[in-house]
Amino acid sequence: MEKVVITHQELTGVRLADIDHQPPKIKCPDDVKSNTEPNKPTRRVAWNRPVATDNTGNAPTIDTYPPWIVSPHVFRIGSTRIFYTATDQNGNAQSCAFTVTITDDEPPTLTCPKDIEVKKTTAGPTVTVHWRSPIYEDNSGEAVTLFTESIKGSGFRVGQHRIKYEAADRSGNKAFCIFTITVSAPTCRQYAPPVNGLLACVQSDILSSKVCTPQCNLNTDFSRIPSNMYICQSTGEWYPLDSRPTVSRELPWPDCTDVVKPGSPKKGTSWQSLAGDCSDPAVQIQAKQNLLQGVTSVFWDMGLLTRDVKIACGKTAAKKVIRGQISRRRRSVRRGN
């Protein structure tokens, strides 16, 4: 049987050389980078739709993917890839793509609770403090991560404590807020410093109490035997801390209105006597050292410093009163002889 060969041209009437194999030409816009609009998770972006040309002179059809993205379009945070495909009437196709990237550079809003003031009313070293969590909001509409080194319901010592919160969104934007917790020591009645003497006080974080001791100026003595320490308790009352049975527990602490008797022991302890008058700065330094010596003797070395000690000078009785007392006592001695 004779083999019959039919050419493409004989079959279709078109020469192979005349078939269009060349795809259209199409160019997409450049990549777009932008930030979110204020207080929004989006940005409205507009661009020019690509124009395609074909060697046939006929306009190709242009399809978009995703098909619902048309300029202008509102994009959310992140990157979106947009494809355009141009197809000529012979089925030749060419594609291009560009990327729209929306960046969130807006930090969250973060509001801490108001400052908290707490009065210490318990005997322990700390006070338990609770507070509400900060209020936050982010333009992304998503949850943020909260971080703090402080834990609600923790125990806080007397003093001021700064509580810092940090909020971070998924884009790494951060916001900070700070509030203060102030724990105040119990307030005891503030008696006047002893006349002709002074009152030295220090706040001990270890004891969570204010510790005071009265001290007498040179050549004066207490009117009665004082406690070597007075502790301001959590109840707001002074406690004379001294185990000696002869100690007067009467408040306020005694004045230094007696004159030192030669050869007689002083009513106070060694750290309750001064080498001068309270008006002398050097004597005030001695008074601070006296108190720290007393604290170490009664308790232990708490690491307190002289700068932690507060001094309050008492009134000075008129010299003629003291001299009168001395004169009367001298006359009594002469009469006794």
TrEMBL record:
Residues 22-34 have a biased composition (Basic and acidic residues). Keywords: Repeat. Residues 22-42 are annotated as: Disordered. The keyword Repeat applies. The keyword Repeat applies. It comes from the Eukaryota. Residues 19-104, 105-185 form the HYR domain. This is HYR domain-containing protein. It comes from Desmophyllum pertusum.
